[in-house]
Amino acid sequence: MDTMRVIQKSDDNFIKFNDVESVLIHGDKSKIKQPFITIAIPTYRRHILLKEAIDSALNQLNPNCEYEVIIVDNEVSYGVVTETEKLIKGYSNNKLLYYRNSDNIGMAGNWNRCFELARGKWVAFLHDDDLLVNDYLFKVSKLLDKKKKIGALVSSFEIIGENNRTKKDSKLERVTKKLFVRFGKNKLMRIRPLDTKIWNSNIYGPPTCGALFYKDYALKQGGFDEDNFPSLDWFFLFNFNKKYKVYKPLDKLGFYRVIDNESLNPKTLRAFVKDAADFREINRKSYLIGKLMFKFFKYEQHAVIIDWVMDLGKSSELKAEEFNNLCKYKIRPILLSLYKRAFRIYWIIKRIMAMIFG
């Protein structure tokens, strides 16, 4: 991967699949003429979990805006009625539209197709194994009125599924989370490219659980680039954030399901580490803060990424030692502890500032 190109340039990724048609299989667009928000669910052969995702999008409490729910299916049917199609045709909700691509355009292509097919001013992404909170639309409609020229809201979510893959919160984190739940309602925390430059990681999170994008801005940005897999969401949002304001609600918007899928494939996990190492190197060369963090915490930045990947892939054949070639690693326990504490304190302060001013 040419990480310098990733940082400095955004291509038009929508033109890559202009010749692939997305056919409307179920639903009537005339029933909802001008949706304000489109909840977009890209899917591929996951009809059982997909039903839960759809239900969470359709069964919204007190939605205070017009909205549509679009399913964009990447499974080629070859004239056969698929399990996903059978599921969708069991719905009679006028808000639901089901599209199927005439060819498989990959994950990035399908995410981009969601932008293209959405008719809402805002596009909320929901992966087909995740869920929205039941008052998602009510919450985000109020949040969008709080700030001017919002480009995106990335989602705060609760992890469900195989929780044994996730580390337990510290006592400080448990206390602060309770405070954020109590005082963080209808509050927004500003996310900036500087945050990524300092911590050399995807501080935006995955584009799901109601991550909301202003459609026109996303189209101008060029969409997700399949060549940046598996970090395509990180690099897209990093570039997007250079031009447009990104905020993160302190309040929970959805539920993120941790299951064995492509993201937990050992090959994919290895690629995550390589992407972070590449970004760290370019960050060092391109930005003063990146140079300073590299100088003092090069090994610690690498160690945190390794810990994260090893925790995700704890049941795979991954070995921490195999990543040592990406950084002449030195174990420095005191600096590593300092780095981790600084990371936690940094985000606690940002959240407190959001509770006061957000």
Class based on secondary structure composition and strand pairing: alpha/beta
CATH architecture level-2 label of the largest domain: Alpha-Beta Complex
Count of individual helical segments = 12
H-E order: HEEHEHEHEEHEEHEHEHHEEHHH
- For the CA atoms, what is the radius of gyration? 20 Å
Straight-line N-to-C gap: 37 Å
* Unreliably modeled segments: none
Shape descriptor = globular
Which CATH C-level class of the largest domain is it?
A: Alpha Beta
What is the helical fraction, as a range of percent? 40-55%
Task: Describe what this molecule looks like in 3D.
The protein is an alpha/beta fold and 358 residues long. It has two domains: 260 residues, Alpha-Beta Complex (Spore Coat Polysaccharide Biosynthesis Protein SpsA, Chain A), CATH 3.90.550; 94 residues, no CATH class. The chain has twelve helices and twelve strands. The strands form two sheets. The protein has a nine-stranded mixed β-sheet, sandwiched between helices. The protein has a three-stranded mixed β-sheet with strand order 6-12-8. It is globular, with a radius of gyration of 20 Å. The two termini are 37 Å apart.
